[in-house]
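note to self: dont lose this again. the chain is below, predicted strucutre after it. 152 aa total, dont forget to put it in the shared folder this time
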Amino acid sequence: MLTELITLLTCDGLEGDDLADCVARIEASPADPELEWIEGDSPAEFMQFAILAELGDFVAIGDKVDELHEEISEQFADPLPAFPGQEMPVADYFQWLDGELAARPTPYEILLWGNHFDDNLYAFIVRRKDTARVLDLAGGLGLLAERATRRG
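---
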């Protein structure tokens, strides 16, 4: 389950030994002494953070929506249009972004990764066709993820 989730979150960006090593580290996260600061009582709470730590090259991070937009845009060879404006409510921004990503040759969607550790927004860019499966796998593992269009 976790291997498939990581494969989909990275849009097939990890394979072979790199994928297996990443999954092994995430699975071992509840016993990782460096993560003792996480006040979790379930393996999922540790894995929630470990996925972010392991997949740093595949996640966009920002404490403000305009910063998140820049990070998301940098993930594409053909950047997104400029951030539409400081006054735009978060829910409206994610609706606008969803339309932009859906219109790409490969349609994508933004999934927000649950975060109880800081004030940042963490977003994965996934293929739109994989969204339902990613959410199903995450839920089955007790992980928190949601469509950005549901945020607001």
